[in-house]
Amino acid sequence: MDPLPNPAPLASKLRNTLVRYHSVGDSEWRVAKKTKDATVWRKPSEEFSGYLYKAQGVVEDVTNRIVDHIRPGPYRLDWDSLMTSMDILETFEENCCVMRYTTAGQLWNIIAPREFVDFSYTTSYEDGLLTCGISLDYGEVRPNFVRGFNHPCGWFCVPLKDSPGHSLLTGYIQTELRGMLPQSAVDTAMSSTLANFYSDLKKALKT
What we know:
GO cellular component, one term: endoplasmic reticulum
CATH architecture: 2-Layer Sandwich
Pfam families: START (PF01852)
Number of helices: 4
InterPro entries: StarD4, START-like_dom_sf, START_lipid-bd_dom
Low-confidence stretches: none
Organism: Copsychus sechellarum
Protein name: STAR4 protein
Radius of gyration: 16 Å
């Protein structure tokens, strides 16, 4: 088990990584799924043997409220159907924390419940916000869970110039679920999960 990292350099490196993903040209992405709420693309990850996913959609609400629903905090468990528990293990200055959370089984439990321990950081980006995270090798793995690993992930949320009550939400996710899983099942689950994330988030913001 690793000790907790110094948050400032990790936060800075994480932000720079996400900004780099955000500047990757359209030609490098391939559409994986399209719904009325979001489009999901993917490209091979530089971090592991799976994919880096990009999801994007317009959400009707102001940036701060959307990000408050996504980042670690009381809202997320209320609406995110995939997340079954969340505990903040450590809080640092500058909108940084370490959280442990668990996810439900997926695809008729082909993908068993997972546990993650993530460093999370929220910061300003252009006129909006970026909330991002990366998994840490920290704490004991609880029984009945496989410990998954999130390579650098994050959500950019910026107000639309011509419609300030709406925001463009763009996510970058690369999750290594670990355990014995067929890659095709993981890829199917990831695309659907990201598309559902937008529809669930929109419902939550309307209530």
